[in-house]
Design brief:
This protein has helices at 6-24, 27-35, 39-66, 73-89, 95-107, 113-146, 154-174, 177-190, 192-198, 204-223, 227-244, 246-254, 261-275, 287-298, 303-331. It has a domain at 6-15 and 38-161 and 228-288 and 303-334. Helix 2 (27-35) packs across helix 15 and helix 6 (113-146) runs antiparallel to helix 7. By secondary structure, it is mostly helical.
Length: 348
């Protein structure tokens, strides 16, 4: 008897959670609410989502350009779309999508592997920093609007502090690559005996030379990024978060409901944290819907309205992006399975 693939089992779990979620949310009322949505506003929400993807790609493009890469913005945009497809299909805390992005940037953009890796890592760290900044802005906005005490928002405050702290630490490490090289070198030599056992061709001098070359190239790619570019990237990524909140906000308006912008912005940041949980369920089906609806309800939005807005928002930020990313991946000739062996054929 053949074993059922793990992915199919996890997908079945996600579908089951989603069906229970619909049942508990008063399915009939939800269907009627969704049917009342103004389609032009749903289309506008999709357009806003594309703008946000474009801003995300622009910040990365600026980093690549400063690193000496000659990849076009159009190509970087299409590669980013394909990486989004990888993230949505294989939820592994963005690892699958970022590996795909690095591989495609190397293969299709002609960017050396170390430079591609440095640009993606720096882009992700700046994204995390902007995440913390946006949470701080949203907390202040929501607190002032509804005279909330910060105790009521302590969960979001904690998330913002952690995001800023980790991003700052990561940026420090990134711009102090020489220290990281020394640590890596010491670690490599400590496990040298084990490496010799599993790899007969291991040579200390050769390994040290390769390690030094890789770190020098990586360091060059990072330090070549101007401070003005870093600031511009942070501003762009922060603006992207602020604009992204208009996707669900526009959908709520299409349903005739007008929630607080700051509350929606906080929910967007919360949902992005949930999306980083590597549960393995394709698209985190069921999990994302429950999380988003619960977050909306936490700000006093009625469950049927919150559920309807969640389903329509997921239609835009998941299914719509999945189609766009899939088209980009096909156009680039990308294969998610093929990226596992990309390190064997990349340009160094």
């Amino acid at each position: 008897m053949k074993r059922v693939p793990k992915t199919l089992l996890l997908l079945a779990v996600g579908i089951a959670i989603f069906l229970v979620y619909l049942y508990l949310s008063d399915f009939t009322t939800v269907v009627k609410t969704i049917a009342s949505a103004q389609m032009p506003l749903i289309a506008l929400a999709a357009g806003i989502d594309v703008i946000c993807i474009g801003l995300f790609a622009l910040a990365w493009y600026l980093i690549l350009r400063d690193g000496g890469s000659h990849i076009s913005y159009a190509k970087s945009f299409s590669i980013l779309l394909a990486s989004i497809f990888g993230d949505l299909m294989i939820p592994t805390a963005s690892i699958s999508g970022e590996l795909l992005r690095i591989g495609l940037t190397n293969k299709k953009g002609g960017v050396p592997l170390t430079k591609a890796s440095a640009s993606v890592l720096l882009h992700r760290l700046l994204h995390g920093l902007s995440f913390g900044i946006v949470i701080a802005i949203a907390i202040v906005g929501e607190a002032l609007l509804h005279a909330l005490v910060f105790r009521e928002l302590r969960g979001f405050i904690a998330a913002g502090v952690v995001a800023i702290a980790f991003s700052a630490l990561g940026l420090y490490a990134l711009f102090n690559v020489k220290k990281m090289y020394k640590i890596t070198e010491r670690t490599l030599f400590k496990i040298e005996g084990f490496l010799v056992k599993i790899w007969k061709q291991y040579n200390r001098d050769d390994a040290k030379q390769r390690l030094m070359e890789a770190f020098e190239t990586f360091n060059g790619a990072v330090v070549s990024v101007r401070r003005s570019t870093l600031l511009a990237a942070i501003i762009i990524l922060t603006a992207r978060w602020m604009i992204l909140a208009f996707v669900p906000l526009t959908i709520f308006i299409s349903l005739g409901y007008y929630p607080s912008y700051w509350a929606i912005l906080l929910v967007c940041t919360f949902v992005s944290l949930v999306q980083m949980i590597p549960l393995g369920i394709p698209g985190l089906l069921g999990i994302m819907e429950v999380s988003m609806t619960a977050a909306f309800a936490g700000f006093g939005i009625p469950i049927p309205i919150a559920t309807s807005a969640t389903i329509l928002t997921r239609l835009v930020i998941f299914w719509f992006e999945l189609v766009l990313g899939g088209v980009a991946a096909i156009a680039l000739g990308a294969s998610l399975a093929g990226t596992r062996g990309s390190s064997n054929s990349v340009k160094s």
